[in-house]
Amino acid sequence: MSRILVTGANGFLGAHIVKEALDSGYIVRGTVRSSEKAEELKKVFPSDKFETTIVPDLIESDYTEALKGVTAVIHSASPFIVTINDPKKDLLDPAIEGTLSVLRATQAAGIKRVVVTSSLGAVPSKPELIFADVTYGPDDWLPITYEQASSGRLPGNIAYIASKKFAELAAWDFVKEHPELKLTTINPTMIYGPVIHPISSLKSLNTSNATIYSLINGSKELPDAIPSFCDVVSTAKIHVKALESESVVGKRVLFSKGTATIYQILNVIAKARPELSDRFPSIPEADPMEGKTISRFDSTLAMDTLGVKGLGLEETVLQTVDSLLELEKKLGTN
């Protein structure tokens, strides 16, 4: 039975990757930042096939012990960033060095197979980004330069997706120097779905689920969100299936199930959960995004090669809502 390492195992996506890997028969070792987080995660995964290893810092930590006995790595962790005062120092370089740190250790340990979580945000290559009338594919890259991203003149969300681009580029450049490594990157869009990782407050929700929660927590404002979606369980499956497929070695696996505007998401909730209506923002008569062109993404490798079709919008949204309401009962609204 193969043992794999999953970095960021106590994150929203990372925990689902752990679950899918355990369900697929792997022994899973997950990285966490502290012994406290390790104990919390062991309560989620009490299986004797699940292990934890403490990696306090993605960039500075020694992975020697973490990688002992491991045959493959799924790197889903991102550097822990509290505030961004200097995009280069606080965002770009930590993202790049965090990825390279894992890859260097993986290569030094003689491990050949590695899957890295990137982002669909690293893909749109047109100036209009996700509002271009095109189907983006694996050969497309965000046109923002490192100099632009580090200048401090870009909005925070654009600087963030630029950091995902440069971290992914660093991974591909590393593999050019070490061709014995078999790399696949997974590039999902906005990921929604049930929360299974330990959190102490709804304020700790991942960005995408926090967007849906803002529709049902009484805040009464329509949030902004990238009008594209995928579900977390399918995204986790793609990571695990990629380990087992030679067909995606050296490939970028894009994953978007389709378009989802905030208006469409809110209407799904309103139709299926009318008892929540007093929490909703005002629903516009028409979708503010109506008439706008929204880019498409070629998810052939995920859906056809790896066989993961993904859940539809209604199922994805309602699974998320039900999970958030359960968390609200458990944790309260603070």
Automatic annotation (TrEMBL):
The keyword Oxidoreductase applies. SUPFAM superfamilies: NAD(P)-binding Rossmann-fold domains (SSF51735). The keyword Acetylation does not apply. One of its GO terms (molecular function) is oxidoreductase activity, acting on the CH-OH group of donors, NAD or NADP as acceptor. Belongs to the NAD(P)-dependent epimerase/dehydratase family. Dihydroflavonol-4-reductase subfamily. Keywords: Oxidoreductase. This is NAD(P)-binding protein. Residues 4-195 form the NAD-dependent epimerase/dehydratase domain. It comes from the Eukaryota. It comes from Gymnopus androsaceus JB14.
